[in-house]
Amino acid sequence: MKASTLRRHYRESFKNLRRNGWMTFAAVSAVTVTLLLVGVFLVVMLNMNKVATDIEKDVEVRVHVKLEASDADKKMLEQKIANLPEVDSVEYSSKEKELQNLIKDLGDDFALFEQNNPLYDVYIVKTKRPIDTPKAAKKIEKFTATEAAIYGEKKVEKLFDVLKTSRNVGLVLILGLLFTAMFLISNTIKITIFARRKEIEIMRLVGATNWFIRWPFILEGLWLGILGSVLPILAVVIGYRYVADEAAMRLQGEFIQLLDYFPFVLQVSGIIILIGAFIGMWGSFMSVRKFLKI
Predict the structure, then answer these.
(1) Kind and range of the H or E element at 55?
(2) Whole-structure pTM over 0.70, yes or no?
(3) What pLDDT is attached to residue 116?
């Protein structure tokens, strides 16, 4: 495409936006409402996914070492655990340290056990993928020096099922919302193009090619998508600042945290503007191609 032709298409697209003020307002409003819903839902789902990932990362296997195990047995057990393909890290915690943690968490009454410590030496094992925790625990239980491999069997497996289901449901809802947004915006743009069908017929009669006619409408859809994304982006940037500040105060010291304000809002803003631009261009292209039979 020649530079002069491209400049002409840009001028025509901006001119059409001004010329069809009310239709432009209707299309931008449709884009704004749908992208606002998409943006809010995107923020919620990405934070839910982050919380789910944090919960998964907190899952670990606590391997109790047999009381009669020698230092050599412990070192061999640690080596065997570390060599498992599912294992990411192995951390040793002596029974003395375990008792101190117990006293710290439950009170000084447990200090009585310092003379005769009944606890086990423990290896704290984390897997590369949290979902592999049950598999690693079953393998570790078979090692000679292992007394028990504890990971909250039924609760952990139920947790993984719930997280998997929530992620799948979230993905389906986002896709459904995007499809609805595309449908609504496409129909709004279709109305604006229908109102200008005579203009298109005249262009065809004077010999304009299909793509020569399409390009101003596609660019117009691009501007509609970008304009419609402005308010949703502002709502996400301002709203998430308030939510992030509140969450920082209320969740202080907790292992579950929301995504950091930066660069999260920039990423979401980029996604919103890309979705708006794509839907606007796609809606214009499909409307011109199918509805007006060009």
Answers:
(1) helix 21-57
(2) yes
(3) 73
